[in-house]
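Can anyone check this?
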Amino acid sequence: MSAVLTLSHGAKNEYTIISNAFIDHYMPQANGSYVKVYLYLLRLASDPDSITLSLIADRLEETEKDIERALKYWEKQKLIKLTRDNANSITDIVFLPLMPDNELKESSCTKEPPPKKTAESSDADKEEAEESSCCHFEKPDYSNAQITALTSLDEVKKLISHLERILGRLLKPSDVQTLLFLYESLGFSTELITYLYEYCASRNKKSTSYIEAVGIAWAQAGVDNIEKAEVETAIYSQGYTIVNRAFGLNRAPGSIELKYIHRWFATFGFNGEIIEEACNRTMLSTSRPDFKYTDKILTNWHTAGIKNKADIAVLDSEFARKKPIKSKPEITPPSSNRFTAFPQRKYTASDYSALEEMLLRKDCTHAD
């Protein structure tokens, strides 16, 4: 039987009040089920008697483990504070005040560090990370105590064993950090994590940075079960094929390239036809596969509201119309000098005839 929870809230109202800061800054980046749990907790805060994790799970049609993951996520976001008993069961949930809106805006975008270079990483995985759009998921640095506590869980032990078979090696410390990030911060189930590793291994991409990048992309796309992951992988497989064909590549994209492709398809919402056109223009301009150059093209098209190739044609026409026409250089008349200063004489046919007769007479005189 789950322990009885105590919820406390600063205000008690007939209506459930949701902060605009939560809607603007926290909700868009969170897993949908996590948002559902947070909103339901706000509702329960006005009537906190006899609340248990089991009750919340039944009401939301989730498992108690799912509810715990959601609570841990919001605790990491510093929206709630959890209190646990000696058995590590959650006993108290306190809602914390949200950061002021101006501070949220300043801290919402950060520069993403480059992926760690490892011997098993491909050249594409070793590219320096670009300044990305706002980082929606911050990977914590788990302490030895946290690692020990989490890896002692039976389901995590079984998961580690499965992943080592998939990777064909023992997990390194960096692998464990990524695993706990997927399990704790992103809230992936053990089944979804296993599917993630199997998918990456099937593409011969077993580096930690690549697996982490795919996991983040899935979380941003709202993937929280295997069914959604299968749909996502089908979309990306089609995307990889389009980009590889246009760029003439015969390999899977690296972790940085993966983030670009995810942005083009998921964030910008472009179809394969538009992305292929941008890749083709990149090759014509740079003569090489350049994801950064293609990203600039697609970012401009996204800003311009491009939806299809017809829109691109209209944008090209407007650009050509607005482009200034270069005027022809003026022809400067030749400068006057001692060779061109005298007036030019025009010769007639009779002039040429008289000159010819004079030359003939001169030849006859020399002959005598």
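Reply from J.R.: I decoded it. The chain has 16 helices and four strands.
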